[in-house]
Amino acid sequence: MSIDPASPPRLPPVHRVLDWPAVAALAEAHGRPLVVDAVRAVLDACRRGEEPDTDTAILEAVSRRITSLVAPGQKTVFNLTGTVLHTNLGRAPLPPEAIEAMTRIAAGASNLEYDLATGKRGERDSHVTGWLQRLTGAEAATVVNNNAAAVLLTLNSLAARKEVIVSRGELIEIGGAFRLPDIMARAGCRLREVGTTNRTHLRDYAEAIGPRTALILKAHTSNYRIEGFTAEVDERTLAGLAAKHGLPFVVDLGSGTLTDLTRLGLPAEPTPTETLSRGADLVTFSGDKLLGGPQAGMVVGRTDLIERLRRNPMKRAMRCDKLTLAALEAVLRLYADPERVCQRIPALRLLTRSREQIAAMAARCRQPLQQWAGTEWDVDMVDVDSQIGSGSLPVDLLPSKALRLRRQGGGRTGGQALNRLAARLRALPMPVVGRIADDTLLLDLRCLEDPAPLLAQLNNSG
Ligand SMILES: *Cc1c(COP(=O)(O)O)cnc(C)c1O
Questions:
Q1: Are residues 366 and 440 in the same domain?
Q2: 186-218: per-residue pLDDT in tens?
Q3: What is the DSSP secondary-structure string of 306-364?
């Protein structure tokens, strides 16, 4: 019998490795199948000469594989990008009240769709619709998984096989593949574009109305602004035109805020209340943008129209789960106290931090970051502008402070080193995500409220 040169005889068989006490302990902790797979994979790698084949090296490789396999895929990160409602980083952080509600409801049974007074089946939306009506002044409300779903459900319920009139200036694409024309097609509606990109007049809408028209839609152009020679028809006038023809007038607000942002020193953003008072029949908006809650999509407005949405079987496919509803209810309750809402909703608190407050945070982190980065890097404090994010008001910037990392000596050759530095920050136990601009790495500290965990990991891994 010849010995296969590719398979060194001293490599132990799988069952032997599984009997090693340290490996048996891994199997006890994480389950046998995972560990068996890891051992097989490591031994295969040894056979291919990709891993050293001593017992110690095999053990180390097996435990490394298991550790990375069982580590949570979704991790907490430091959002130091300067974009507060960052879609890729999960948008709004939730207030403790919402986290508490989700934790409580997650653990067991709840009256999600059960009327405790009558013992009969209840309505899951009922836990939030009262709050939505109170906070927006709407007659009725419903809620689905996100605002894209809210728009899709609205269009499909009210305008399937019919025409929806939209201004060409509002045929928006929002990051993450929300394109109004595509949503429209999937909702089964025909898009009837009117006007031009920069100018749309009342007569453009009026001339488009015909027997197949189902509704008039206005979409908030969240992530861009058309400037210069422009014209759009105000909501009150459009609402009047729609009413004259017996058509619903729907406004997709996108972000939507339940509080007057100018009172907080932030740029003005229309509220559902204002939009309804200007004559909108339905208004849709997101839960996890400026509202500062969980991912959800709200539709508020006329009772008869909301009823049509509720009766659509699509609503069943888009319904929120009990955790979202628990969090949303808790967040909406915080809006009942407008005086304190800005401090209690983390998204609003972060958006309203002053440059001075952020600078104090930067001052505390500068030196530890310098030590961690090493002498190859210069770390200083610079003025930057944060963004709200999530498509809201990209042209309105919030004065902030960042730590700037520049390669000693500067120059334009530092691109790769800069990428490596950014990767090192992302590889920390609690990854740090900044942004690269002008051959520097910027860490905008607007979203860092508690520096302790950041400082601890910089000190431990420098
Ligand atoms: C963000 C946005 C949407 C999509 O909302 P999601 O909650 O992300 O699904 C739709 N319309 C407008 C105008 C938006 O700004």
A1: yes
A2: 999 999 999 987 888 999 999 999 999 999 999
A3: HHHHHHSHHHHHTPPPHHHHHHHHHHHHHTT-TTTHHHHSHHHHHHT--HHHHHHHHHH
Q: Are 292 and 346 in contact (CB under 8 A)?
A: yes
Q: How confident is the model at residue 1 (pLDDT cuts 50, 70, 90)?
A: very low
- How far is Cα 135 from Cα 116, in angstroms, rounded to an integer? 25
Q: Is 294 in the pocket of ligand 1 (CB under 6 A)?
A: no
Among 145, 221, 222, which residue has the most ligand 1 atoms within 8 Å of its CB, making it the best to mutate? 222
Tokens standing for 400? 């902030």
Contact predicate 281/302, CB 8 Å? yes
Residues 47, 18: Cα–Cα separation, whole Å:
18
Could you give the CA distance from residue 440 to residue 257 in angstroms, rounded to a whole number? 34
Q: Which of 19, 293, 314, 388 is nearest to 156 (CA)?
A: 314
Measure Cα distances from 100 to 13, 105, 258, 452 in Å: 49, 9, 22, 23
Which ligand 1 atom lies nearest to the CA of residue 148? 9
> CA separation (Å) from 163 to 17, 119, 216, 321?
67, 43, 9, 32
Q: Which helix (H) or strand (E) holds 460?
A: helix 452-461
- CB neighbour class for 227 (10 Å; exposed up to 12, middle 13-18, buried from 19): exposed
Bridge pairing between strands 440-444 and 392-407:
antiparallel
Nearest-5° Cα angle at 308, 307 to 311: 85
Residues 391 and 333 in one domain: no
Dist CA 222 CA 256 (whole Å) = 10
Quick one: which of 163, 159, 236 has its CA closest to 202?
236
Report if residue 1 sits inside a domain.
Answer: no
Q: Which domain holds residue 128?
A: 96-344
Closest protein CA for atom 11 of ligand 1 = 254
- Residues 162-182, mean pLDDT to the nearest whole number: 85
Model confidence band, residue 234 (pLDDT cutoffs 50, 70, 90): very high
In angstroms, rounded to a whole number, what is the distance separating the alpha carbons of residues 389 and 289?
A: 8
Write out the two tokens for 358.
């952020």
255 and 403 share a domain? Answer: no
CA distance 107 to 303: 34
The reply to whether ligand 1 has any atom less than 6 angstroms from the CB of 393 is: no
Total domains present in the chain: 3
Pairing of strands 282-286, 249-254: parallel
Q: What is the mean pLDDT of residues 51-71?
A: 94
Q: Which of 302, 328, 344 is the last residue of a domain?
A: 344
